[in-house]
Write a structure and sequence with these properties.
This protein is α+β, with helices and mostly antiparallel strands. It has three helices and six strands; from the N terminus they run E-E-H-E-E-H-E-H-E. It has a two-stranded antiparallel sheet with strand order 1-2. A two-stranded antiparallel sheet has the order 3-4.
Length: about 120
């Protein structure tokens, strides 16, 4: 289940790179209901074209109830993992025009989906 997609107004708003971002609550609700951990994964392209896969375990078994507060806590936790991952890759950039266009539409709090690698 992907957790890094823009959920628009229906999402849980959490901090991401200094802005509020809408993220789907589904992974948090699923983890809280079942006690299953969240496995955060990312693939990082290497200079030789291969990919390095990084997996991190996010445990939620200390949270016993599905409450709005716990959903927010878990959603923020995995969004923070994504933020740290994005910040640790110097070649990964945010498409600033997407952020500016969202702001112009009045959607400045929406998650910026346009992450890309520079062409050079």
């Amino acid at each position: 289940m992907l957790a890094d997609q823009d959920a628009h107004a229906e999402g849980v708003f959490v901090d991401f790179m200094g802005r509020k971002a809408s993220n789907h609550p589904g992974p948090a609700v699923f983890a809280l209901r079942t006690g299953a951990p969240i496995l955060f994964g990312s693939a990082i392209r290497q200079p030789d074209g291969r990919h390095l896969f990084d997996l991190q375990l996010l445990r939620v078994d200390d949270l016993k109830e599905v409450t709005p507060e716990n959903i927010l806590k878990v959603t923020q936790a995995y969004t923070s993992l994504l933020e740290r991952r994005c910040g640790s890759i110097p070649t990964l950039v945010l498409d600033a025009s997407a952020l500016e266009n969202a702001a112009a539409r009045g959607n400045e709090n929406r998650f910026v989906k346009n992450l890309r690698y520079p062409s050079n």
